[in-house]
Amino acid sequence: MLRREISAVLSSELSDPRLSSMISVTEVDCSPDLGRARVFVSVLGGEEDKASALAALKSAAGFVHRSLRSRVRLRSVPSLDFRLDESIEAGMDLIDKIRRNVPQPGFSDQP
Questions:
Q1: Which structural domains are found in the chain, ordered by start?
Q2: In the predicted model, what is the mean pLDDT of residues 37-43?
Q3: What's the pLDDT score for residue 82?
Q4: Which of 9, 16, 27, 99 is most buried (CB neighbours < 10 A)?
């Protein structure tokens, strides 16, 4: 629920120019007492784009937190800690390495 609502706030209520349209909330990991939540985001772009987007998200964390209060029905909304999720890029790199090193079916080096 939090992942969906944070995504909605980011896409519809934030207008920071440092945020591209290619930001995805991939996971929200809450502490057991719901006091804190780590929000993992994936940003499409170079390292500079990622750093800029993360800085924008960290500065907007209070705004997103306040927006969530009216959107979710929880006793208390956790404070948000935005972090980059590099798992998508790591997975794509791994797939690329596999494709380069594993022979494709139907292709053979032998005549």
A1: 2-101 (3.30.300.20)
A2: 93
A3: 95
A4: 9
